[in-house]
Design a protein that fits this description.
Blueprint: E1 4-11, E2 17-24, H1 27-35, H2 39-49, E3 54-60, E4 66-73, E5 78-88, E6 98-108, H3 109-116, H4 118-121, H5 124-131
Antiparallel strand pairs: 1-2, 1-3, 3-4, 4-5, 5-6
């Protein structure tokens, strides 16, 4: 069964961002994290304080082969979505490295969830092949 690490930040009882971490095994659990995020409050506090939270999801092992999605809220119902895939870190993370990055720019929450479902439907290798173009 697939395991995805979810890291996210939002304020709880004050102006400071609080880090949260959870391991999920189902796409529905990942969607619950996004759905329970305080979108309106965080958007207002971002305007007021100049810093905001966000999401970082990891499939695989960060020390070898992995894929990550970063979803940065840009309002009440959308955000910037970026994908990074590393199938071979390479020497000094430079030489002989096999990696690809893709920016989806600003997407809606439902669009982000559709993209994140790929972590539960594909391996890191198949995601690399899909986005390598």
């Amino acid at each position: 069964m697939v395991s995805v690490k979810a890291y996210y930040q939002h304020r709880v009882d004050g102006p400071e961002l609080v880090n949260h971490e959870k391991e999920v095994k189902l796409h529905r659990e990942l969607c619950d994290i996004i759905d329970n995020y305080p979108w309106v409050r965080e958007s207002e506090l971002f305007e007021e304080l100049g810093e905001g939270g966000g999401f970082f999801f990891i499939l695989g092992d960060e020390d070898s082969k992995y894929a990550t999605y970063q979803f940065t809220p840009m309002g009440y119902d959308e955000g910037l979505l970026d994908l990074d895939i590393v199938v071979k870190p390479g020497f000094l993370n430079i030489f002989n490295r096999k990696a690809v990055s893709k920016s989806f720019d600003v997407v809606s929450i439902p669009e982000a969830k559709r993209h994140l479902k790929e972590f539960f439907d594909h391996s890191v290798d198949s995601l690399y092949k899909k986005y390598k173009r």
